[in-house]
Amino acid sequence: MASVRDLRDRIKSLKNTQQITKAMKQVAAAKIRRAEAVQKQARPYADTLAEMLRDLLQNVRSVDHPFMKPGRAGAPSGVILMTADKGLAGAFNSNLVQTAETFRRAHQDAVFYSVGIKARNAIRRWGKADHATWVLGAPDKIRTAREISERVSADFTNGTIGEIVLISPKLISMMSQKPERRTLVPITGEQSPERSGVLSERSESKGKGAVEFSPSPEFVLSRLIPKYLEFTIYSAMLETDAAFFAAQLVAMSNATDNAGKLIRDLTIVMNNARQAAITKELLEIVAGAEALAG
Amino acid sequence: MASAVAFKLITPTEIVFEGEAELVIATGTEGEEGILAHHAPFLTALRPGVLRANVSGSSGQTSRLELATSEGFMQALPDRVTVIVDQALRFEDVDVVQTRQQLSEALERQAHVAAQSPEFAREQSAIDFANAKLRLTGH
Protein backbone atom coordinates (compact mmCIF):
# COMPACT_ATOMS: atom_id res chain seq x y z
CA MET A 1 0.00 0.00 0.00
CA ALA A 2 1.16 3.47 -0.87
CA SER A 3 2.46 5.55 1.95
CA VAL A 4 0.58 8.54 3.29
CA ARG A 5 3.16 10.85 1.83
CA ASP A 6 2.86 9.36 -1.68
CA LEU A 7 -0.88 9.73 -1.53
CA ARG A 8 -0.64 13.30 -0.37
CA ASP A 9 1.63 14.13 -3.31
CA ARG A 10 -0.75 12.54 -5.77
CA ILE A 11 -3.70 14.45 -4.38
CA LYS A 12 -1.77 17.65 -4.61
CA SER A 13 -0.90 17.11 -8.27
CA LEU A 14 -4.48 16.14 -9.03
CA LYS A 15 -5.67 19.37 -7.46
CA ASN A 16 -3.33 21.31 -9.71
CA THR A 17 -4.62 19.49 -12.76
CA GLN A 18 -8.17 20.15 -11.67
CA GLN A 19 -7.44 23.82 -11.38
CA ILE A 20 -6.12 23.92 -14.93
CA THR A 21 -9.08 22.05 -16.39
CA LYS A 22 -11.46 24.27 -14.46
CA ALA A 23 -9.81 27.39 -15.86
CA MET A 24 -9.92 25.97 -19.39
CA LYS A 25 -13.58 25.19 -18.92
CA GLN A 26 -14.32 28.76 -17.96
CA VAL A 27 -12.31 30.11 -20.87
CA ALA A 28 -14.16 27.81 -23.28
CA ALA A 29 -17.49 28.98 -21.87
CA ALA A 30 -16.55 32.60 -22.46
CA LYS A 31 -15.21 31.91 -25.94
CA ILE A 32 -18.22 29.95 -27.04
CA ARG A 33 -20.40 32.93 -26.21
CA ARG A 34 -18.23 35.13 -28.39
CA ALA A 35 -18.18 32.56 -31.21
CA GLU A 36 -21.94 32.32 -31.10
CA ALA A 37 -22.30 36.08 -31.22
CA VAL A 38 -20.13 36.23 -34.35
CA GLN A 39 -22.23 33.48 -35.89
CA LYS A 40 -25.38 35.39 -35.11
CA GLN A 41 -23.97 38.56 -36.65
CA ALA A 42 -23.42 36.72 -39.91
CA ARG A 43 -27.07 35.72 -40.13
CA PRO A 44 -28.51 38.83 -41.86
CA TYR A 45 -25.79 38.67 -44.49
CA ALA A 46 -26.46 34.98 -45.08
CA ASP A 47 -30.20 35.54 -45.41
CA THR A 48 -29.79 38.41 -47.87
CA LEU A 49 -27.28 36.53 -49.96
CA ALA A 50 -29.60 33.53 -50.12
CA GLU A 51 -32.54 35.74 -51.07
CA MET A 52 -30.60 37.40 -53.87
CA LEU A 53 -29.51 34.06 -55.22
CA ARG A 54 -33.08 32.79 -55.12
CA ASP A 55 -34.34 35.86 -56.97
CA LEU A 56 -31.67 35.44 -59.51
CA LEU A 57 -32.24 31.76 -60.18
CA GLN A 58 -35.94 32.42 -60.67
CA ASN A 59 -35.13 34.91 -63.35
CA VAL A 60 -32.41 33.17 -65.22
CA ARG A 61 -33.69 30.84 -67.90
CA SER A 62 -30.63 28.71 -68.28
CA VAL A 63 -28.06 28.66 -65.56
CA ASP A 64 -24.72 28.63 -67.20
CA HIS A 65 -22.06 28.58 -64.55
CA PRO A 66 -19.36 25.93 -64.13
CA PHE A 67 -20.40 25.42 -60.50
CA MET A 68 -23.89 24.37 -61.51
CA LYS A 69 -22.64 21.62 -63.76
CA PRO A 70 -20.83 18.39 -62.87
CA GLY A 71 -17.06 18.68 -62.83
CA ARG A 72 -14.70 16.99 -65.21
CA ALA A 73 -15.58 13.30 -65.50
CA GLY A 74 -13.10 11.06 -63.72
CA ALA A 75 -11.50 13.90 -61.80
CA PRO A 76 -10.81 13.15 -58.12
CA SER A 77 -12.87 14.69 -55.33
CA GLY A 78 -11.53 17.76 -53.59
CA VAL A 79 -12.07 17.55 -49.85
CA ILE A 80 -11.81 20.46 -47.45
CA LEU A 81 -11.25 19.03 -43.98
CA MET A 82 -11.98 21.56 -41.29
CA THR A 83 -10.91 21.05 -37.68
CA ALA A 84 -9.78 23.19 -34.77
CA ASP A 85 -6.19 24.36 -34.36
CA LYS A 86 -5.91 22.99 -30.85
CA GLY A 87 -6.85 19.85 -29.01
CA LEU A 88 -8.07 19.15 -25.48
CA ALA A 89 -11.63 18.90 -26.70
CA GLY A 90 -12.34 15.18 -26.36
CA ALA A 91 -12.88 13.33 -29.60
CA PHE A 92 -13.81 16.50 -31.49
CA ASN A 93 -10.87 16.60 -33.92
CA SER A 94 -10.40 12.87 -34.22
CA ASN A 95 -14.05 12.37 -35.16
CA LEU A 96 -13.58 14.80 -38.02
CA VAL A 97 -10.35 13.18 -39.13
CA GLN A 98 -12.04 9.79 -38.98
CA THR A 99 -14.84 10.99 -41.25
CA ALA A 100 -12.23 12.17 -43.71
CA GLU A 101 -10.39 8.85 -43.37
CA THR A 102 -13.56 6.95 -44.23
CA PHE A 103 -14.04 9.14 -47.27
CA ARG A 104 -10.44 8.61 -48.28
CA ARG A 105 -10.85 4.83 -48.15
CA ALA A 106 -13.72 5.09 -50.63
CA HIS A 107 -11.96 7.69 -52.81
CA GLN A 108 -8.29 6.77 -52.90
CA ASP A 109 -7.36 9.62 -55.23
CA ALA A 110 -9.12 12.43 -53.32
CA VAL A 111 -7.29 15.74 -53.10
CA PHE A 112 -7.27 17.19 -49.60
CA TYR A 113 -7.26 20.78 -48.36
CA SER A 114 -6.97 21.39 -44.65
CA VAL A 115 -8.29 24.15 -42.46
CA GLY A 116 -7.08 23.97 -38.87
CA ILE A 117 -3.76 22.71 -37.54
CA LYS A 118 -5.16 19.35 -36.42
CA ALA A 119 -6.49 18.70 -39.92
CA ARG A 120 -3.16 19.67 -41.39
CA ASN A 121 -1.27 17.28 -39.11
CA ALA A 122 -3.64 14.43 -39.88
CA ILE A 123 -3.34 14.88 -43.63
CA ARG A 124 0.43 15.17 -43.41
CA ARG A 125 0.43 11.88 -41.56
CA TRP A 126 -1.20 10.33 -44.62
CA GLY A 127 1.87 11.30 -46.57
CA LYS A 128 0.44 14.38 -48.26
CA ALA A 129 2.95 16.83 -46.92
CA ASP A 130 2.45 19.46 -49.58
CA HIS A 131 -1.32 19.88 -49.58
CA ALA A 132 -2.89 23.35 -49.35
CA THR A 133 -3.50 24.33 -45.76
CA TRP A 134 -4.87 27.23 -43.70
CA VAL A 135 -5.21 27.83 -39.99
CA LEU A 136 -8.66 28.25 -38.53
CA GLY A 137 -7.73 30.83 -35.93
CA ALA A 138 -6.42 33.51 -38.30
CA PRO A 139 -7.60 36.97 -37.27
CA ASP A 140 -9.28 37.71 -40.58
CA LYS A 141 -11.53 34.72 -41.22
CA ILE A 142 -13.27 36.34 -44.16
CA ARG A 143 -10.00 36.69 -45.96
CA THR A 144 -9.02 33.10 -45.19
CA ALA A 145 -12.39 31.95 -46.49
CA ARG A 146 -11.82 33.90 -49.69
CA GLU A 147 -8.39 32.34 -50.18
CA ILE A 148 -9.76 28.85 -49.66
CA SER A 149 -12.66 29.52 -51.96
CA GLU A 150 -10.43 30.92 -54.70
CA ARG A 151 -8.07 27.99 -54.48
CA VAL A 152 -10.72 25.25 -54.64
CA SER A 153 -12.66 27.15 -57.33
CA ALA A 154 -9.57 27.36 -59.50
CA ASP A 155 -8.86 23.66 -59.03
CA PHE A 156 -12.46 22.83 -59.88
CA THR A 157 -12.54 25.03 -62.95
CA ASN A 158 -9.29 23.71 -64.40
CA GLY A 159 -10.37 20.11 -63.81
CA THR A 160 -7.88 19.16 -61.08
CA ILE A 161 -10.84 18.15 -58.95
CA GLY A 162 -14.31 17.08 -60.01
CA GLU A 163 -16.25 18.20 -56.95
CA ILE A 164 -15.77 20.19 -53.77
CA VAL A 165 -16.65 18.39 -50.55
CA LEU A 166 -16.53 19.96 -47.12
CA ILE A 167 -16.09 18.01 -43.90
CA SER A 168 -16.72 20.21 -40.90
CA PRO A 169 -18.38 19.91 -37.51
CA LYS A 170 -22.04 20.68 -37.07
CA LEU A 171 -23.03 22.19 -33.76
CA ILE A 172 -26.20 20.30 -32.92
CA SER A 173 -26.34 21.47 -29.33
CA MET A 174 -23.94 22.51 -26.61
CA MET A 175 -23.53 18.87 -25.72
CA SER A 176 -23.27 17.41 -29.17
CA GLN A 177 -21.27 18.18 -32.28
CA LYS A 178 -21.15 15.87 -35.25
CA PRO A 179 -18.90 15.80 -38.28
CA GLU A 180 -20.88 16.63 -41.37
CA ARG A 181 -19.95 15.97 -44.98
CA ARG A 182 -21.55 17.96 -47.75
CA THR A 183 -20.90 18.67 -51.38
CA LEU A 184 -20.50 22.37 -52.04
CA VAL A 185 -19.83 22.21 -55.76
CA PRO A 186 -21.42 21.28 -58.09
CA ILE A 187 -24.40 22.97 -56.52
CA THR A 188 -27.39 20.66 -56.57
CA GLY A 189 -30.84 20.79 -55.09
CA GLU A 190 -30.32 17.92 -52.69
CA GLN A 191 -28.11 19.55 -50.08
CA SER A 192 -29.26 20.03 -46.53
CA PRO A 193 -32.49 22.04 -46.71
CA GLU A 194 -31.56 24.80 -44.31
CA ARG A 195 -28.32 25.71 -46.03
CA SER A 196 -29.15 25.42 -49.66
CA GLY A 197 -32.90 25.41 -49.68
CA VAL A 198 -31.96 28.59 -51.35
CA LEU A 199 -31.40 26.78 -54.55
CA SER A 200 -34.20 24.25 -54.49
CA GLU A 201 -36.97 26.72 -53.79
CA ARG A 202 -36.65 28.31 -57.15
CA SER A 203 -39.80 26.82 -58.63
CA GLU A 204 -41.90 27.71 -55.61
CA SER A 205 -42.57 31.41 -55.92
CA LYS A 206 -42.68 32.17 -59.56
CA GLY A 207 -44.32 35.20 -61.02
CA LYS A 208 -43.08 37.51 -58.29
CA GLY A 209 -42.41 40.05 -60.99
CA ALA A 210 -39.47 40.37 -63.24
CA VAL A 211 -36.32 41.65 -61.62
CA GLU A 212 -33.94 43.78 -63.56
CA PHE A 213 -30.29 42.85 -63.38
CA SER A 214 -27.38 45.08 -64.07
CA PRO A 215 -25.54 44.49 -66.28
CA SER A 216 -27.06 41.02 -66.89
CA PRO A 217 -28.40 38.14 -64.80
CA GLU A 218 -25.52 35.95 -65.95
CA PHE A 219 -22.98 38.51 -64.84
CA VAL A 220 -24.54 39.00 -61.42
CA LEU A 221 -24.79 35.23 -61.04
CA SER A 222 -21.13 34.82 -61.95
CA ARG A 223 -20.36 37.18 -59.05
CA LEU A 224 -22.89 35.81 -56.60
CA ILE A 225 -22.03 32.12 -56.86
CA PRO A 226 -18.36 32.52 -55.85
CA LYS A 227 -19.50 34.81 -53.05
CA TYR A 228 -21.95 32.16 -51.95
CA LEU A 229 -19.20 29.53 -51.85
CA GLU A 230 -16.90 31.90 -50.00
CA PHE A 231 -19.55 32.73 -47.45
CA THR A 232 -20.49 29.07 -46.97
CA ILE A 233 -16.86 28.36 -46.12
CA TYR A 234 -16.76 31.38 -43.81
CA SER A 235 -19.83 30.30 -41.90
CA ALA A 236 -18.49 26.73 -41.67
CA MET A 237 -15.37 28.23 -40.07
CA LEU A 238 -17.49 30.09 -37.55
CA GLU A 239 -19.43 26.94 -36.78
CA THR A 240 -16.19 24.98 -36.36
CA ASP A 241 -15.06 27.57 -33.84
CA ALA A 242 -18.28 27.43 -31.88
CA ALA A 243 -18.44 23.63 -32.00
CA PHE A 244 -14.83 23.35 -30.87
CA PHE A 245 -15.40 25.47 -27.78
CA ALA A 246 -18.58 23.55 -27.02
CA ALA A 247 -16.64 20.27 -27.26
CA GLN A 248 -13.86 21.71 -25.14
CA LEU A 249 -16.32 22.93 -22.54
CA VAL A 250 -17.77 19.42 -22.20
CA ALA A 251 -14.34 17.76 -22.20
CA MET A 252 -12.94 20.11 -19.56
CA SER A 253 -16.04 19.89 -17.44
CA ASN A 254 -15.74 16.08 -17.49
CA ALA A 255 -12.05 16.28 -16.68
CA THR A 256 -12.74 18.57 -13.72
CA ASP A 257 -15.42 16.18 -12.44
CA ASN A 258 -13.14 13.17 -12.86
CA ALA A 259 -10.32 14.88 -11.04
CA GLY A 260 -12.73 15.71 -8.23
CA LYS A 261 -13.80 12.09 -7.98
CA LEU A 262 -10.21 10.86 -7.91
CA ILE A 263 -9.32 13.41 -5.25
CA ARG A 264 -12.21 12.25 -3.09
CA ASP A 265 -11.32 8.56 -3.47
CA LEU A 266 -7.65 9.13 -2.82
CA THR A 267 -8.39 11.27 0.20
CA ILE A 268 -10.34 8.38 1.73
CA VAL A 269 -7.51 5.96 0.98
CA MET A 270 -5.04 8.43 2.47
CA ASN A 271 -7.13 8.88 5.63
CA ASN A 272 -7.43 5.12 5.97
CA ALA A 273 -3.70 4.69 5.56
CA ARG A 274 -2.99 7.40 8.10
CA GLN A 275 -5.46 5.90 10.58
CA ALA A 276 -3.98 2.44 10.01
CA ALA A 277 -0.54 3.78 10.78
CA ILE A 278 -1.77 5.45 13.98
CA THR A 279 -3.62 2.31 15.07
CA LYS A 280 -0.56 0.23 14.39
CA GLU A 281 1.63 2.51 16.46
CA LEU A 282 -0.89 2.48 19.32
CA LEU A 283 -1.06 -1.29 19.23
CA GLU A 284 2.70 -1.46 19.40
CA ILE A 285 2.80 0.86 22.41
CA VAL A 286 0.02 -1.04 24.18
CA ALA A 287 1.62 -4.36 23.36
CA GLY A 288 4.96 -3.09 24.59
CA ALA A 289 3.44 -1.78 27.84
CA GLU A 290 1.63 -5.03 28.43
CA ALA A 291 4.79 -7.02 27.85
CA LEU A 292 6.60 -4.90 30.46
CA ALA A 293 3.74 -5.14 32.94
CA GLY A 294 3.33 -8.88 32.33
CA MET B 1 -40.44 64.65 -46.65
CA ALA B 2 -40.01 62.67 -49.80
CA SER B 3 -41.02 59.05 -49.65
CA ALA B 4 -38.41 56.79 -48.21
CA VAL B 5 -37.50 53.13 -48.42
CA ALA B 6 -36.25 50.76 -45.77
CA PHE B 7 -32.50 50.66 -46.25
CA LYS B 8 -30.15 48.05 -44.87
CA LEU B 9 -26.39 47.85 -45.22
CA ILE B 10 -25.02 44.51 -44.14
CA THR B 11 -21.53 43.01 -43.84
CA PRO B 12 -20.71 39.47 -42.69
CA THR B 13 -19.84 40.81 -39.26
CA GLU B 14 -22.50 43.42 -38.59
CA ILE B 15 -25.52 45.39 -39.74
CA VAL B 16 -23.83 48.70 -40.49
CA PHE B 17 -27.02 50.64 -41.07
CA GLU B 18 -30.70 49.88 -40.78
CA GLY B 19 -33.29 52.59 -41.25
CA GLU B 20 -35.07 54.74 -43.80
CA ALA B 21 -33.43 56.29 -46.82
CA GLU B 22 -34.68 58.66 -49.50
CA LEU B 23 -31.83 58.02 -51.85
CA VAL B 24 -29.07 55.42 -52.04
CA ILE B 25 -26.17 55.80 -54.44
CA ALA B 26 -23.72 52.93 -54.88
CA THR B 27 -21.03 52.08 -57.38
CA GLY B 28 -22.27 49.31 -59.64
CA THR B 29 -20.06 47.47 -62.07
CA GLU B 30 -21.62 49.66 -64.78
CA GLY B 31 -21.22 52.95 -62.95
CA GLU B 32 -23.05 54.72 -60.16
CA GLU B 33 -26.58 53.61 -59.45
CA GLY B 34 -28.97 55.87 -57.58
CA ILE B 35 -32.03 54.27 -56.02
CA LEU B 36 -35.14 56.18 -54.97
CA ALA B 37 -38.31 54.83 -53.39
CA HIS B 38 -40.64 52.69 -55.53
CA HIS B 39 -37.80 51.45 -57.65
CA ALA B 40 -38.56 48.45 -59.85
CA PRO B 41 -37.02 45.19 -58.61
CA PHE B 42 -33.35 45.47 -59.34
CA LEU B 43 -30.20 43.54 -58.49
CA THR B 44 -26.67 44.56 -59.29
CA ALA B 45 -23.11 43.66 -58.42
CA LEU B 46 -21.15 46.47 -56.76
CA ARG B 47 -17.57 47.49 -57.26
CA PRO B 48 -15.56 48.91 -54.39
CA GLY B 49 -16.50 52.55 -54.05
CA VAL B 50 -18.10 55.20 -51.91
CA LEU B 51 -21.69 54.51 -50.99
CA ARG B 52 -23.83 57.55 -50.23
CA ALA B 53 -27.33 57.68 -48.85
CA ASN B 54 -29.75 60.32 -47.60
CA VAL B 55 -31.08 58.66 -44.52
CA SER B 56 -33.58 59.78 -41.96
CA GLY B 57 -33.15 59.12 -38.30
CA SER B 58 -35.89 58.29 -35.82
CA SER B 59 -36.62 61.96 -35.19
CA GLY B 60 -37.34 62.61 -38.86
CA GLN B 61 -34.50 64.86 -39.94
CA THR B 62 -32.40 63.62 -42.79
CA SER B 63 -28.69 63.13 -42.70
CA ARG B 64 -26.02 62.04 -45.08
CA LEU B 65 -24.45 58.60 -44.77
CA GLU B 66 -21.14 58.06 -46.54
CA LEU B 67 -19.14 54.88 -46.42
CA ALA B 68 -16.30 53.26 -48.30
CA THR B 69 -17.51 49.83 -49.37
CA SER B 70 -15.74 46.85 -50.88
CA GLU B 71 -17.25 44.44 -53.40
CA GLY B 72 -20.83 43.37 -52.91
CA PHE B 73 -24.36 43.44 -54.19
CA MET B 74 -27.31 45.79 -54.08
CA GLN B 75 -30.89 44.67 -54.22
CA ALA B 76 -33.70 47.18 -54.71
CA LEU B 77 -37.38 46.43 -54.28
CA PRO B 78 -40.21 48.99 -54.30
CA ASP B 79 -40.20 49.17 -50.50
CA ARG B 80 -36.63 48.36 -49.56
CA VAL B 81 -33.01 48.56 -50.58
CA THR B 82 -30.49 46.07 -49.29
CA VAL B 83 -26.75 46.28 -49.79
CA ILE B 84 -24.38 43.49 -48.81
CA VAL B 85 -20.66 44.12 -48.93
CA ASP B 86 -17.60 42.46 -47.42
CA GLN B 87 -16.55 45.65 -45.67
CA ALA B 88 -18.07 49.05 -45.05
CA LEU B 89 -16.01 51.74 -43.36
CA ARG B 90 -17.06 55.09 -42.00
CA PHE B 91 -14.91 58.18 -42.24
CA GLU B 92 -13.58 57.70 -38.73
CA ASP B 93 -12.74 54.02 -39.32
CA VAL B 94 -10.32 54.74 -42.15
CA ASP B 95 -6.65 54.75 -41.31
CA VAL B 96 -5.19 56.93 -44.06
CA VAL B 97 -1.54 55.98 -43.55
CA GLN B 98 -2.37 52.30 -43.53
CA THR B 99 -4.63 52.65 -46.57
CA ARG B 100 -1.90 54.42 -48.54
CA GLN B 101 0.43 51.57 -47.72
CA GLN B 102 -2.17 48.98 -48.75
CA LEU B 103 -2.67 50.85 -51.99
CA SER B 104 0.99 50.91 -52.90
CA GLU B 105 1.40 47.25 -51.91
CA ALA B 106 -1.55 46.24 -54.06
CA LEU B 107 -0.20 48.24 -57.00
CA GLU B 108 3.18 46.62 -56.52
CA ARG B 109 1.69 43.12 -56.46
CA GLN B 110 -0.54 43.81 -59.43
CA ALA B 111 2.41 44.85 -61.53
CA HIS B 112 3.75 41.30 -61.32
CA VAL B 113 0.70 39.33 -62.44
CA ALA B 114 -0.92 38.77 -65.81
CA ALA B 115 -3.66 41.23 -66.69
CA GLN B 116 -6.39 38.62 -67.17
CA SER B 117 -5.64 36.47 -64.11
CA PRO B 118 -7.86 36.25 -61.03
CA GLU B 119 -4.97 37.67 -58.97
CA PHE B 120 -5.03 40.76 -61.12
CA ALA B 121 -8.74 41.20 -60.52
CA ARG B 122 -8.26 40.69 -56.79
CA GLU B 123 -5.55 43.31 -56.62
CA GLN B 124 -7.68 45.66 -58.71
CA SER B 125 -10.45 45.25 -56.19
CA ALA B 126 -8.03 46.02 -53.35
CA ILE B 127 -6.80 49.10 -55.24
CA ASP B 128 -10.36 50.32 -55.86
CA PHE B 129 -11.26 49.82 -52.22
CA ALA B 130 -8.17 51.69 -51.04
CA ASN B 131 -8.99 54.53 -53.44
CA ALA B 132 -12.56 54.61 -52.18
CA LYS B 133 -11.30 54.90 -48.61
CA LEU B 134 -9.00 57.75 -49.58
CA ARG B 135 -11.78 59.50 -51.48
CA LEU B 136 -14.08 59.15 -48.49
CA THR B 137 -11.53 60.84 -46.27
CA GLY B 138 -10.95 63.59 -48.81
CA HIS B 139 -7.50 62.58 -49.99
How would you describe the overall organization of this protein?
The complex is a heterodimer of chains A (294) and B (139). With 294 residues, chain A is an alpha/beta fold. In chain A, 62% of the residues lie in helices and 13% in strands. Chain A has 7 helices and 6 strands. A 5-stranded mixed beta sheet of chain A has the order 3-2-1-4-5, sandwiched between helices. Chain A is elongated and about 115 Å long. The two termini of chain A are 34 Å apart. Chain B has 2 domains: 5-89, Sandwich (ATP Synthase, domain 1); 94-137. Chain B has 139 residues and is of the alpha+beta class. Chain B has helices spanning 96-110, 118-136; strands at residues 5-10, 15-28, 31-36, 42-46, 49-56, 62-69, 72-77, 80-85, 88-90. Chain B contains 2 helices and 9 strands, in the order βββββββββαα. The mean pLDDT of chain B is 88. The radius of gyration of chain B is 16 Å and the shape is globular. The chains are: A alpha/beta (294), B alpha+beta (139). The A-B interface holds A 38, 41-42, 44-45, 48-49, 51-52, 55-56, 142, 150, 154, 209-215, 219-220, 223-224, 227, 231, 234 and B 8, 10-15, 28-30, 33, 40-45, 71, 73, 75, 82, 84, 86, 118, 122.
| Content of β-strand of chain A | 5-15%
Question: What is the beta-strand fraction of chain B?
Answer: 35-45%
From the alpha carbons, calculate the radius of gyration of chain B and give it in angstroms.
16 Å
Q: CATH superfamily assignment of the largest domain in chain B?
A: F0F1 ATP synthase delta/epsilon subunit, N-terminal
Which segments of chain B are poorly predicted (pLDDT under 50) over 5 or more consecutive residues? none
- Count of discrete alpha- or pi-helical segments spanning 4 or more residues of chain A: 7
Tell me the name of the CATH class of the largest domain in chain B: Mainly Beta
- The overall average pLDDT of chain A, rounded, is 87
Q: Could you say what the CATH architecture of the largest domain in chain A is?
A: 3-Layer(aba) Sandwich
Distance between the termini of chain A: 34 Å
Q: Please describe the biggest sheet of chain A, giving its number of strands, its sense, and whether it closes into a barrel.
A: 5 strands, mixed
CATH superfamily of the largest domain in chain A: ATP synthase, F1 complex, gamma subunit
Largest sheet of chain B: 9 strands, mixed
The greatest interface here is: A-B, 28 and 25 residues
